[in-house]
Amino acid sequence: MLPVVGAFRPWADATQTAIGRLPMTTRGLDPTDTRLDGAWRFRLFERPDEISDDAVVGSAAGDEWMTVEVPGNWSLQEGVGDTPHYTNVEMPFEGPPPTLPERNATGVYRRAFSAPRRAPGDRVLLSVGGADSVHIVYVNGEFIGYGTDARLESVYDVSHAIRDGENDLAIVVVRFSAHSHVEDQDGWWMAGLHRPVGLMVRPPSSLTDVRLGADWDPSAERGSLSVRAEVSLEALDEGWSVRASLTDGAGVSVADAMSSVDVGHTDTYRFTGFAAEIDSGDLGVEPWSAESPVLYRCRIELLNPEGVVVDSTSQRVGFRRVEVVGPDLLVNGRRVWIHGVNRHDHHPERGAAVSVADMRADLMQMRRHNITAVRTSHYPNRPEFLDLCDELGFYVVDEANIESHAHNWHVCDMPEYREAWVERVARMVQRDRNHPSVIMWSLGNESGYGANHDAAAGWVRRADPSRPLHYEDAIRTQGWIDGGRHATHVVCPMYPTVPEVADYGRAVAEGRADRPFIMCEYSHAMGNANGSLADYWDVIHAWPGLQGGFIWEWKDHGVRHPEAGDDRLHYGGMFGESPHDGNFIADGLVSADLEPHPGLAEVAWVYRDVATRVEGDRVVVENRRSFAGLGDLRARWTMTARDTVTSGDLDVGEVPPGQSREVPLPVNVPVDRLGVFTVSWETREDSWFAPAGHVVAWDQHVADLSLADDPATVGSAPVTSTASGVVAGPDPQLWRAAVDNDGFKLMLERAARESKGSQRLHRWLSQGIPTSEPSQLIGYQRETVGDIERHVFDVPASLEGLPRVGVRYVIDPRFTRMRWFGRGPGENYPDRNRGAMVGIWESGIDQLPYLIPQEYGLRTDTRWAELHDPDTGDRIRVEALDQPFSFSAIRHTAEDLYDATHAADLRENPCLILSLDAAHRGLGNGACGPDVDARYEIQPGRHTLVYRVTTRRAADRR
Ligand code: IPT
């Protein structure tokens, strides 16, 4: 049995949140401290009660011991044999809380370490960065402590247990605990020591905590800094003092102040010997914002009565004020747009054990796509994440590690979990309060709304009134207009429809609503998704009170396992686990390997900082930034009309933040034939996220594409009458390999039963869309006159909302390049194409960008498309003769895509499949949110597709 705790089993007791753990402070492990990362000895037991006491003391050299990496999730490490388990809402074992599963894998981590260099009286603190789910610490066989909350560090004083020379450290990690019921986030259940472990040495008298209040007064344009240093003194003598010195980025002193630690009782009941407070007002400093993340450094020193510095720490400081004023969330007195995403700590091989470089890579990829806000869904990240956000400029909603989704309405009112609630929220605040990037505290995710929330909110309201509170379920359960005010200062719903968002804006405009509206989750990026993203932002820009939101989510959580035998990214169920939620875990804007999915281009466009539009003979430039001008950007314009392209620089002068400026249109936009006027904004200088010339924003003014003249028909080459290169077709086509938003093909049964996600796929299956001859379902006629093809489709009312209406060709695979005039360069869909520019594009054949095979590769608003054989110079060309069409040319049929369950299992078709659509269904957000908007549904009635198809043999040109 485990020494000391084995008999009373804290892991099974929700009231037991910690034993022997020190209070959380802003002073965590820093780079100069001793790290205990690397190879540890490791042994896995079936359950915590089975661990013999000799497992945590004595030799760890026997055969039953293996080696694992720390930080790491043992569930992803070789030889351990305890694999990940994916569930979203459900618990991976039966409830109710605090029930635990029969088998409860428990790992014993062991390693030797040498006592760190220390002077007599110094204390040695052990920091356990993150253990999933709970952990127990022994040093040299002596019980040290017990800690919960898998996503925050636990610090223990181990001074008394350490001896000179070599020491032995054992950390027992229990995979499931009573606290797992409040860590039921949508993600992999993976266990282990996934964050760094280290030792900190502190002098006998020390600064235990340093709290900084760095405010910026926008009206006075001055900063102020309050420093509260908590001290622990060896002896309560008079004469101790604390000094705070503020320096700017260049190391130049800005302010210096001192305060004594008053160890006397200054008045009845009040003892001040535990802290020193310093207030410096009226500082001539620059403010911090995500647009201009100016940081200072504050060095705090503890001086003994002789004036000698005995301890010191330094913290970064950003001066800024966050407040909710009426329906606006203000940073330094101004409204800011929340161009956000939800981010999990995730790495495809290391799971939750992300490195600082991984986090930086995430932020760089985000910033390249104009994302400047992150919700740390659904737990506090490594502290270095916030350091990066402070430094690089991101607004952060810092979220407590609380989700009791499976028992939403229950746990939040269970008194035995009250301490867990308050402590998880409070410890996050205690750790992160000095970070300027943190603009709101979130009480967690999907945990209902109960007394435990109000207890936690009450603590924060007193301890850090400088930041607003954020909690979604408070407004979900009690209403957007007036609900949940104690737990949230903002209305932060998930997955509302566009009209619902507009309704809230209208309520603000009419004085019926008075809180800022910031969606904590919206635009679910599962597979080929993010329909209507631009529609959301049209509404957000149009109404007061609406400030943006956080897309769900940043990255897919696919994982590779060293024992899988291949390098496939796994989703739920692939480890044989049950229950599971399949590919609901593959719902990111980027792949698990950080490759952008096509939807990210739409995000970059929608989140752009500068918008340009043509009004009559003027160009109107709108600066959407809150603090900065546009001086760092260069604007270029291009006018494409028929065969002429003109271009130049657009000189708009300075455009103050939040304002618009007009300049004359530099060129005539022809209305009688197709004209495309484009303005793009690119960076003038290299930045941390991209080299100079990086395009951050663009807009187009496009003459009506449906009336347009084709710029490239001029001088078209001679044609052969038969379309050589065409292997088969055209044949009518109604089916697209369902996207995740159409329905979950991998979880058909379950989705039907639980009415999860869009139900459209079920309807299509029952209508026989994937299996029937299209001409048996709809009226279809084809007419060929010379090289002109005319297809007429009559869709009966009963088939409203089809996947697509069009034709398909099978093409000789030697055609490996495509060129087209329409939207591009990346794939785009009717409700996700505003971020795709109209132009003449050229590319190779697309590869499936999604983990789960599904429809991909479409290009909308196409006037003409060509396929080229680069070896022979042969070309197949399709020109729209009435409406522009959508097309894709990929190496898979819809049937192949639909049948395959993993990208790695998808075989390429020997031929190229060219699809031409008169209509194609939008993407919507049906997997977790509103279905396709009616505007992007295929209506019943007549659809026509008329085009000329020609083949040019290279020989014909000679
Ligand atoms: C919502 C969750 O907050 C998030 O963690 C994730 O699961 C997302 O959905 C779907 O991917 S909860 C949902 C039931 C609305």
TrEMBL record:
Keyword Hydrolase among UniProt keywords: yes
Protein name: Beta-galactosidase
Family note: Belongs to the glycosyl hydrolase 2 family.
SUPFAM superfamilies: (Trans)glycosidases (SSF51445), beta-Galactosidase/glucuronidase domain (SSF49303), Galactose mutarotase-like (SSF74650), Galactose-binding domain-like (SSF49785)
UniProt-listed Enzyme Commission number(s): 3.2.1.23
Top enzyme category: hydrolase
Ranges where the Beta galactosidase small chain/ domain occurs: 713-950
Record's keyword terms, sorted: Glycosidase, Hydrolase
A GO term for molecular function: hydrolase activity
Naturally occurring in which organism (per UniProt): Microbacterium awajiense
Keyword Secreted included in the entry's annotation: no
InterPro entries (alphabetical): B-gal_small/dom_5, Bact_Beta-galactosidase, Beta-gal/glucu_dom_sf, Gal_mutarotase_sf_dom, Galactose-bd-like_sf, GH, GH-type_carb-bd, Glyco_hydro_2
Catalytic activity reported: Hydrolysis of terminal non-reducing beta-D-galactose residues in beta-D-galactosides
